[in-house]
Structure formats: structure tokens, C-alpha cells
Design a protein that fits this description.
By secondary structure, the chain is of the alpha/beta class. It folds into three domains: 1-43, no CATH class; 51-235, Thiamin diphosphate (ThDP)-binding fold, Pyr/PP domains (Rossmann fold); 246-434, Rossmann fold (3-Layer(aba) Sandwich), CATH 3.40.50. The protein is built from 14 helices and 13 strands. Helix 6 (105-119) runs parallel beside helix 7 (129-146), helix 9 packs across helix 12 (374-388) and helix 11 runs parallel beside helix 12. The radius of gyration is 27 Å and the shape is elongated.
Length: 452
């Protein structure tokens, strides 16, 4: 009995093996279960405060579960698979990991992505081999375009002893299928590399700019007994709260203060950084109209008098107001160009503030790059603008804000004219009627999902 307890506490045997060993030794199942429950808190105690890692012994799947806990995961989304049986076994003693069973890999990945976006917390979505992976890849594409930090996992059905023989559910180089849509895709080469591979996937996904990652390993690694190192996520968190270059901030502030008609474009990095109030502050400081090119979230309050609506076409020149802006400030928008004409017209000065620097300057001529966490970037830019404000500038900014407010009010009045449509009370309801009623009566934190 003492040996069984020691082996269980060292995580070299599973819960099931412990119970089997106890009953074989003549202890009743009920008594064995009571003993087991008393050992669970000891067996799965967290690493001591201040330590970066702990050594775990057990199956590869058990190490997988331990690294998920160390990575801050509370919920796991998945479509059950036989080769993940050892992982489910590990969940029995780890109530802090909740498994959300989904009927299909596609909806499961969508649920996981929704959880990340709503909670801001990490999760992982599990699929059954390559057949489950391809079912989830539609949502992987969405996560890639939305820059959602979601980790995907699916095992390789082919075991190490027979890999490369075109076996059942085997696709050569399975991890390469997802490479165009992920920040990171990796195959663990040994069972003891599972925690390292999982940890790296979370680190890459949650390092700005965010995006999906993928990890995989041969299915027999889940059953293999190993000794592996599990590292707490906070010890490898890069904490990339990057401030912009001060010299570039000063250049941007000077351009904005001297501009005849500056315009701010906002994007989803504003939402991710919880920086909407900071964007409002800068816009009000400059009396600057605000728009948003195509993105996922509403990143500026659309009832604010400086809001001028979104461009109906994929370029700023399609805005009714303002016409011919001379300085454009982009804050956190990917600027997805769906037109052969650049979104920002040639000739306008362009300031681009983003943590995602990969596409900066690829299409639009760039005058001032501000690579930064947009929350910190907006703080620094507002401070720099404040240093340049004069009484004459205050008058100019106030006049610009009044002009923008008049356009905003006129646009609102024009939207009200939609009610004069003779088919307004028709059944089934017009799309205009549906959206207007929802806008008036939906809760402020309501999430509206449209078909397209």
C-alpha cells in the first residue's frame, strides 16, 4: 500500500491503476476510493510560490493537462476522441480543468474563440486527429483574420512505430496543413516534450500581435510514461506592453496639431487593449473626426459627435465627411484592402499606430510608424499633443469639432427618415426595421451576430 501511495503521489501511475492495485491488495473499492480522495490535494498541489516550474511524472496526457493548468487554462473545448482517453483520465483528478464537450469540431472551435474574446482568458480546443482538424480549420481561419489567441490541438493517429506508411487517418506532415493560418505550428518529437510544445503554443498565441497556434504529437505519446518539466505561464509571459518611439511620437503630434483636417481610423487593437476611452480623449483633444474601416468590434462610441460613420467602400474617399483629409491617424486597424485603390489616398500624411507591424508600409505610404501597444501609444500621443496646444489651436479644434458634430446630427436625422418607408410596418420585417429596433432596445452589452 505504501508503495502504491508513493507511486500515485509521484504521478507515475494513474488513478485507475492506483484503485486496481489497492483492490488487488485486498482493500475494498469504497475504502480505496476514500484513500484516493484524501491523496488528490497532495498529488496535485501547485508548485510552491515563487517557483517557475515543477517536475511531473506520469503519462504524456497527464503532463499535457498539468501544462494547461500552469498556462492558466480553466476550460477545454473538444470533441471526444479515443486516442485522448488518457487525457480524460487526467481530468478526473483535476477539477480546475472543465471539459466542454461539443458535437462537432467547427462549433467547438467557434465556442472556444468566443470564450477567448469574451473573457480575455486562454483556452485550447481539441480535435480528433486530422479528420477533426480539417473540420475546425474554418474557425481557425476566422481566428487568424481576427487575430484571436486560440490554441488548437489534435493528435496524429499514426503512432511512432508505424508513421509514414499511409495508415488509417494519416496525412504526412499534418502540422503543415495549418501553417498559412497560424502563428506557430509544431509537432512534439518526444512525449516529454509535450509540456514544452503546449507552453510554446500559448506563448506564441498570446504574444502581440495575437493569433491562433497549433500543436500536435503522435497518439502513443499520450500513453507513454514520462518525467517532464511543467513551467508556469507567468514565468514565460513576454509582457509585451511596448511604448512607441518618443521621437516618432513627437513627429506624429506635430503633424496632427498642424493639420487642416486630421482623421482617426480605429481598429480592433483598441478593443483588445481596452483603450476606447483613450481614443475618445485624443479625438476630443484634436476635434478630430473618427471612422472605422472593416473590423470585428465597435472600437469607438458611434453616438459620439465626432463619429462620422464607416466608409461604405474600402477607402476613405468614400466617406461623405470629411473630404480630402490631410493627415490620417490609424490606431490599431489592420486596413484590409478590398480594393485596388489604397484605403488612404496618396498625398495625405499617414501615421500608423499598431503593435502588429508586419503589414505597416506594405500598401499605404507611411510617414510616421508608431509600433506600440495602442493603449500606451494613445497615452503618449495625447501627452505630446497637449504640449503643443495653444489658444489659436484650441479655437481651430473647437471649430472642427462643431463642424463634425453638425454632420453627425444631420446623418442621424437622415437615418431617422428610414421610418418613412411605406413598407416600414410590413411583415416579415424589413432589415432596416430590425436593425433600428435592436439598436434602440438591446442591452448595452448585447452581442449581435449577423448572417454574413
Amino acid at each position: 500500500m505504501r508503495e502504491l501511495v508513493a507511486r500515485y503521489l509521484s504521478q507515475s501511475i494513474s488513478r485507475r491503476a492506483f484503485l486496481k492495485g489497492m483492490t488487488t491488495a485486498g482493500i475494498s473499492l469504497g475504502a480505496a476510493q476514500d484513500i484516493l480522495e484524501s491523496l488528490v490535494p497532495v498529488a496535485h498541489a501547485q508548485a510552491k510560490e515563487g517557483t517557475a516550474f515543477k517536475v511531473v511524472e506520469g503519462t504524456g496526457a497527464l503532463c499535457f493537462a498539468e501544462q494547461l493548468i500552469a498556462s492558466g487554462v480553466k476550460y477545454v473545448f473538444g470533441n471526444s476522441a479515443s486516442e485522448d482517453a488518457q487525457f480524460y483520465e487526467a481530468l478526473v483528478d483535476r477539477p480546475q480543468l472543465k471539459y466542454i464537450l461539443t458535437p462537432h469540431e467547427g462549433p467547438g472551435a467557434a465556442m472556444a474563440a468566443g470564450y477567448v474574446k469574451a473573457s480575455g482568458e486562454p483556452t485550447i480546443v481539441m480535435q480528433a486527429a486530422v479528420v477533426g482538424l480539417v473540420n475546425a480549420m474554418g474557425q481557425m481561419f476566422n481566428a487568424y483574420k481576427e487575430q484571436t489567441p486560440l490554441v488548437f490541438y489534435s493528435y496524429r493517429t499514426d503512432q511512432t512505430g508505424r508513421a509514414g506508411r499511409d495508415g488509417f487517418e494519416e496525412v504526412a506532415n499534418q502540422e503543415q496543413l495549418v501553417q498559412p493560418m497560424t502563428k506557430y505550428a509544431w509537432l512534439a518529437r518526444r512525449a516529454d516534450m509535450i509540456p514544452e510544445t503546449v507552453r510554446r503554443a500559448f506563448k506564441a498565441a498570446w504574444t502581440p500581435p495575437y493569433g491562433p497556434t497549433y500543436c500536435s504529437w503522435h497518439s502513443d505519446f499520450n500513453d507513454e510514461g514520462v518525467r517532464a518539466e511543467v513551467v508556469m505561464q507567468e514565468k514565460v509571459d513576454p509582457r509585451m506592453r511596448v511604448r512607441p518611439n518618443p521621437a516618432e511620437v513627437e513627429r506624429a503630434a506635430k503633424l496632427l496639431v498642424e493639420a487642416r483636417m486630421p482623421v482617426m481610423i480605429v481598429g480592433d487593437e483598441v478593443y483588445s487593449a481596452k483603450a476606447m476611452a483613450k481614443a475618445v480623449k485624443l479625438a476630443e483633444l484634436l476635434g478630430m473626426p473618427v471612422t472605422q474601416a472593416r473590423q470585428i468590434y465597435a472600437n469607438f462610441p458611434e453616438t459620439h459627435p465626432l463619429w462620422v460613420g464607416s466608409p461604405p467602400a474600402a477607402r476613405l474617399t468614400s466617406l461623405d465627411y470629411p473630404k480630402n483629409p490631410d493627415v490620417i491617424l490609424n490606431v490599431g486597424n489592420k486596413l484590409q484592402h478590398n480594393s485596388p485603390v489604397p484605403m488612404v489616398a496618396r498625398g495625405a500624411k499617414f501615421i500608423d499606430m499598431r503593435i502588429d507591424s508586419l503589414s505597416m508600409g506594405n500598401v499605404v505610404e507611411l510617414d510616421v510608424p508608431l509600433v506600440a501597444d495602442v493603449a500606451l501609444g494613445l497615452d503618449d500621443l495625447s501627452a505630446a499633443v497637449s504640449q503643443l496646444i495653444t489658444p489659436a489651436f484650441k479655437q481651430k479644434a473647437a471649430a472642427r469639432a462643431d463642424e463634425t458634430r453638425r454632420f453627425h446630427e444631420k446623418a442621424r436625422e437622415l437615418r431617422d427618415l428610414v421610418m418613412k418607408n411605406p413598407d416600414w410596418d410590413r411583415a416579415p420585417m424589413l432589415a432596416d426595421r430590425v436593425t433600428r429596433e435592436i439598436a434602440q432596445f438591446a442591452d448595452k452589452d448585447a452581442i449581435i451576430v449577423h448572417e454574413a
